[in-house]
Automatic annotation (TrEMBL):
InterPro entries to which the protein is assigned, alphabetical: Yippee, Yippee/Mis18/Cereblon, Yippee_fam
Alphabetized GO MF terms: metal ion binding
Protein family per UniProt: Belongs to the yippee family.
Key words, A-Z: Metal-binding, Zinc
Yippee domain mapped to chain residues: 20-117
Pfam family, one: Yippee-Mis18
Highest taxon of source: Eukaryota
Descriptive protein name: Protein yippee-like
Length: 122
């Protein structure tokens, strides 16, 4: 299996200071703001997932047509920029008109993320 270029840890951006975020469960790179969740009722390859408006510190894998629960979609797997862990996929195109709302969105797998609420203890 071919993996994206692996030496990208230096490209990880430090973002969203003080805001509730999702981080990579493997390397703690910030992946998305918790406020970007559209739905928590999605399914990924390995369990439940979040449909997200946007994400950061990700790199795209190869584009492919994939048969998912809601039909065939053109997607690209997304990998953490910090450690190359596969975190989900990016929806490029939906063949069914009722699924077009997913285009340009991310499916991030819940078990590959950690919620960090960025609470400060006094």
């Amino acid at each position: 299996m071919a993996f994206p270029i692996s030496d990208t840890k230096s490209q990880v951006l430090s973002t969203y200071h003080g805001h509730p975020v999702f981080e990579c469960s493997k390397c703690s790179a910030v992946i998305a703001l918790q406020d970007e969740v559209i739905s928590k009722a999605f399914s990924g390859r390995d369990g439940r997932g979040y449909l997200m408006h946007s994400a950061t510190n990700l790199k795209l894998g190869k584009k492919e047509d994939r048969a998912l629960l809601t039909g065939v979609h053109t997607v690209a797997d997304v990998y953490c920029l910090g450690c190359n862990e596969r975190l989900g996929w990016y929806y490029m195109k939906a063949s069914d008109s009722t699924q077009k709302y997913k285009e340009g969105k991310y499916l991030l797998e819940r078990e590959r993320l950690v919620k960090n609420n960025n609470w400060e203890l006094e």
